[in-house]
Amino acid sequence: MFKYFGDIINEWLLSLGINEATSIIITDYTALLLVFILAIIVFLITKKIIVHFVKLVVNKSKTNWDDILAEKKVFNRLAYLAPAIVINLLSPLVLPNYPVTSGFIQLVLNVYIVIIALSFFSSFLKAINQIYQKFEIAKSKPIKGYIQIILILLYVIGGIFIISILIGKSPTALLVGLGTVSAVLILVFKDSILGLVGGIQLSANEMVKIGDWISMPKYGADGNVIDITLTTVKVQNWDKTITTVPTYALVTDYFKNWRGMEESGGRRIKRSINIDMQSVKFCTPEMLERYKKYQFVSKYVDLRDKEISEYNAKHKVDNSVLVNGRRQTNFGIFREYLKSFLSNNPRINMDMTFLVRHLQPTEYGIPIEIYVFSKNQEWAIYEDLQADIFDHIIAIIPHFDLKIFQNPSGADFKKAFEK
Predict the structure, then answer these.
(1) pLDDT of the residue at 78
(2) Distance (Å) of CA 318 to CA 243, 292, 327, 370
(3) Which of 1, 216, 233, 336 is deepest in the core (most CB within 10 A)?
(4) Beta-carbon count within 10 A of 209 CB
(5) What is the pLDDT of residues 246-291, one digit of tens each?
(6) Beta carbons of 297 and 340 less than 8 angstroms apart
(7) Burial 390-419 (b: 16+ CB within 10 A, else e)
(8) Could you give the domains of the chain?
């Protein structure tokens, strides 16, 4: 076929007055162009056949691993080998008298095949990792790290093959040559190599990205990441100073990334205040009547009082002794007040953890802890909200006949001596 078209083109060129030598060169390279066009057609046909076959298998299969292979386009990578095969078979036939051109085409094809092979194995290994993550064992024994190591080795080996093809030497000779200078290279480029490995791990595991708020006390870093390079990560601290952290340090050392908090829709408020245990007591009728006037607990106190009264009446409890039966305490009502007060605050995220709890009593009193989340994560607004909440709590505590515990100050001792 190529000879037939070549003869037609050659006769046409000769009829135009082009000399025979030039006509033969143009005819041969036109035939090469036809080979490339044929390779593209074969590629499109092969890709369509493979895609159709993969869809057929995926639709009929009940397992999900083939869906993942199709999603990662593992089989589609094989279609890219078709044009290389066509060009490899036909180019020597159309250019038998052009060894330089044939050699160059063969060189490019060999590099192209190595790249396609790397692309295929990369997609295949990523699909294997995703399939493995579907199993329960993946939670305790992940293989992502091993997959990444294999990928790095594959890329290194692929790079060696590509270099050996380009310089026309055996990969074995290239490996031996690299082995003799590897110690020097590691010594000279130690930071770069560590940074490269650290950067790959940071990127692959999405540990840090530009804009993240990270805290790394060892390096004095507490702020937003503004730049990530091969060897360093720049952090702009809240005082606008810049801290430079080695990239590999983020892999080998401890740091805290606040991205999860920022993406969660809330920022935790976890703070407690100590109550003097001697101020905790049963409520008297006078105290209950006073508490019923407090908006956030009026309904609770009223309902609870009726419930307890019915219980005590049913069990014929002697109310002259407070120990008998059931009683409300000022501390319990205060805790309910805090719950109602916080739940009515529009700046509190009620879709996240919401707790008002007692902690273990200590020599400093009994702590009552607020464990809630602010809707706004911005530092200044978050701190304002915390301050507003505890301003109110400190001011309201005496209204429940409770006392805040604090160590005695000079003024306390002065009052004691004056008495």
Answers:
(1) 76
(2) 70, 24, 12, 37
(3) 233
(4) 12
(5) 888 888 788 888 777 777 778 889 999 999 999 999 998 899 999 9
(6) yes
(7) eeebeebbeebbbbebeeeeeeeeeeeeee
(8) 2-188 (no CATH), 208-264 (2.30.30.60), 267-418 (3.30.70.100)
